[in-house]
Design a protein that fits this description.
Blueprint: E1 2-7, H1 13-24, E2 29-32, E3 44-49, E4 58-60, E5 63-66, H2 70-76, E6 82-85, H3 92-96, E7 103-106, H4 116-121, E8 125-127, H5 134-149, H6 152-162, E9 183-187, H7 191-203, E10 206-210, E11 222-223, H8 227-233, E12 236-239, H9 253-258, E13 263-267, H10 276-285, E14 288-293, E15 313-315, H11 324-343
Parallel strand pairs: 1-3, 1-6, 2-3, 6-7, 7-8, 9-10, 9-12, 10-11, 12-13, 13-14, 14-15
Antiparallel strand pairs: 4-5
Length: 354
């Protein structure tokens, strides 16, 4: 079996290849994509390094959030039966030129970089790695929340950039909020939201959750059926919903206006869940004390965006899911799927069916 480990600078090709070798327990041989087919008699694992995240991902032909080009993938997939990747563009054109391909294992929460309809037409199965970054994103969310509540970036900049031992930050009006005793509303209670609920409950927060698709109640949170009710009751709101046509623009000026004055809003989920213009207006007016964003409607935000001058806003460049553990876990999850495929077992995380 010939496998292509099409990694990048986060989920490294070597991580994918090592995980596949460990799973198959075979005498796999590595070969660069331009150096022939390898000489081993077992599994042949080829390596390809894609440019993400040093080069931003984007649409490639008809697929989204991909890295690399169709031509590179067509060449690399010559004679390949299984492709394990995070960002490679698996488009209709790529699939048309990869007649031996039978499985694409995507090391991320969803195979957005794969044309699923074309894959099905070519008899190519797709699997993915759900939950790979849930813990990392939950921890980062709470870290961003703390940074906003306690104004850590602002005070750090005052001291490190201006040498200001700023007693003014100890005044009553300038101090921040504690998590303990604060009502925190979570919009979404899935893999990430449920972990955030557990962490915040440990801090002593009163946690609410709104998620119409949640099958069971969360023991750490009070379930709230109505989003408006959650917004009215929450001093802090954190978004953890999936981006769908129904949730796009879920929180806008009306919803922010329902929150108590001086509230805080956090988004480490998807940028288009939130109306950024409404957010900036609420920060400027004081309706919001602060906000933390890790995701944006446009990534990166364009020069001159009002986000860069919004008071009380802490911004990070879509890093919530970035940890070494995530890359290693993602590699193990997709390698396990390759093992199941090789043994003729059902895939654990198959997307659709060919």
């Amino acid at each position: 079996m010939r496998v292509l480990a099409a990694g990048d600078h986060f989920v490294l090709p070597g991580l994918l290849a090592d995980a596949v070798r460990a799973e198959l327990a075979d005498s796999a041989t590595d070969s660069a994509t331009d150096s022939g087919t390898g000489t081993g008699t077992g599994t042949d694992v080829r390596l390809l390094e894609l440019p993400w995240p040093l080069t931003p991902f984007g649409p490639v032909a008809e697929v989204d959030e991909a890295s690399g080009t169709e031509d590179v993938m067509i060449e690399a997939l010559d004679g390949v039966e299984v492709c394990v990747t995070q960002m490679a563009p698996i488009t209709a054109r790529v699939l048309e030129h990869a007649p031996d391909l039978r499985l694409v294992a995507v090391a991320r929460g969803g195979p957005i970089n794969v044309n699923a309809e074309a894959a099905a037409a070519h008899g190519v199965r797709i699997c993915y790695a759900p939950g790979r970054n849930a813990t990392a994103t939950a921890e980062y969310t709470v870290g961003l929340l703390l940074a906003v509540l306690r104004r850590i970036p602002t005070t750090h900049a005052a001291l490190s950039e201006r040498g200001e031992w700023a007693g003014r930050f100890y005044t009553y009006d300038a101090t921040g909020l504690e998590i303990a005793g604060t009502t925190v509303g979570l919009v979404g209670g899935g893999a990430v939201g449920s972990r955030v609920a557990r962490i915040l409950a440990g801090f002593g927060a009163e946690v609410l959750v709104h998620d119409p698709h949640l099958p069971d109640d969360l023991p750490e949170a009070e379930r709230v059926a109505d989003l408006d009710d959650l917004l009215r009751r929450s001093r802090v709101v954190s978004l953890h919903a999936r981006l769908t046509p129904e949730t796009r623009g879920l929180v806008g000026a009306r919803e922010i206006g329902l929150m108590p004055p001086g509230s805080v809003l956090i988004n480490c989920a998807r940028g288009p869940l939130l109306d950024q213009d409404a957010l900036c207006a609420a920060l400027a007016s004081g309706q919001l004390l602060g906000a933390g964003l890790d995701t944006y409607a446009e990534e990166p935000p364009p020069p001159g965006s009002p986000l860069f001058s919004a008071p009380g806003l802490v911004m990070t460049p879509h890093l919530a899911g970035a940890s070494r553990a995530v890359a290693e876990k993602a590699a193990r999850i997709v390698a396990a799927e390759v093992g199941r495929y090789h043994r003729g077992e059902p895939l654990a995380h198959q997307f659709g069916s060919p």
